[in-house]
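User: Predict NAD(P)H dehydrogenase (quinone)'s structure from this.
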Amino acid sequence: MTTIVIIGGGPGGYEAALVAAQLGAEVTVVEQDGPGGACVLTDCVPSKTMIATSVRKQALLDGSSLGVNFTGGADGDVGGVHVDLPQVNERVKDLALAQSHDIAARLTAEGVRIVKGAGRLVDPQVVRVGDETINADVVIVATGATPRVLPGAEPDGERVLTWRQLYDLKDLPEHLIVVGSGVTGAEFAGAYRSLGSEVTLVSSRDRMMPNEDADAAEVLEEVYRRRGMNVMGRSRAASVKRTAHGVVVTLEDGRTAEGSHCLMTVGMVPNTSGIGLQECGVTLDRHGFVQVDKVSRTSAPGVYAAGDCTGVLMLASVAAMQGRIAVWHALGEAVQPLRLATVASTIFTDPEIAAVGVSQRQIEQGEVEANVVKLPLATNARAKMQGFEDGFVKLFCRPHTGIVLGGVVVAPRASELILALSVAVQHRLTVDQLAHTFAVYPSLSGSITEAARRLMLPVTSAVL
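Assistant:
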């Protein structure tokens, strides 16, 4: 029987463990925080739970366009809609713990041994946890990553915060300054603005989310500004200091922004130092990420890695797939290498932004030849009924074969709508096949089949 030890119990670790156990391996998961890891306990699950509350409140505030009106107000709450932050945070924490317990129960039911503690590699086939030494035929490193800290802007857990410290706040921040306008910054900035905080978003680039689809980022920034957010472009933070009643963020050009709290969202650093990786022959890049190939192998024989510690698209779905691929390869099962071109991603803003496959940037830079169609969500009948005006569906296909190469969806529940495009990209479907698929009328998904029909027309009719 093959013995597998997994260091880290996040998506990359516990999904690998489940597959390994089902294939008959003897599996041990070493995790210091709890099954599910940071993803479940402090990051993805808590943040999306809180965002769900903010989306629900924003829907109430936007209800006037559908004839739902609120009168009066309490304690200055807009429209009389009150947010009980301690209750919100309690629900966030309870849900995260419940999810962790569910994962633990599933692992135990499959015969996986869970060891609480910090694992360290002392040999490519030996892991030490405290005083215990565990021998393994295969080791999978899935230790995740930690919020990056900028010198001069060290979090104190009270006024200067990482996103892992938000759920201990007793009161809604009066004015939250979010430093960093990537995916995490954009998500939290939008959530707290909808919950009722004044929000300033500090972006070092000329627009928020510079690595995402430009059309999508433009839509979201317009929505944020309309909701009253102060978006500061080309503004790199130099330091964050506490004041008597809040914080002051000093920018590199000398300007300052003052608020009650500051949330730092400036990237992640891998949890790879001090756990014996390099000493055992595992190669790290200059940022400390574990170097892996398409089947999750590291440079050390018998040692694999998965998840955020590899720096390969920091998504829970990618971590889970890396972990599964590692197990399949290690146990000699049939396996397909990780194909990043088929990975779907979502930004859980309001509206959501989801994408899969090639990007508009690749097309514009001549890396990929494609026909493009973009349909505004406002023309969709269901969107009109629900009062959704912001967003679009964008579809890319090959000019001659019509094979779907990718797409972008900006809409409520774009995370669900993107599945149709993911299936198309994964299985190399054509726009003709999409176009001939029945969509419910009225539905937001109808815009996907409509976009496909547009791309069946001559090339001259495709519009950017």
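The first strand starts at residue 3 and ends at 7.
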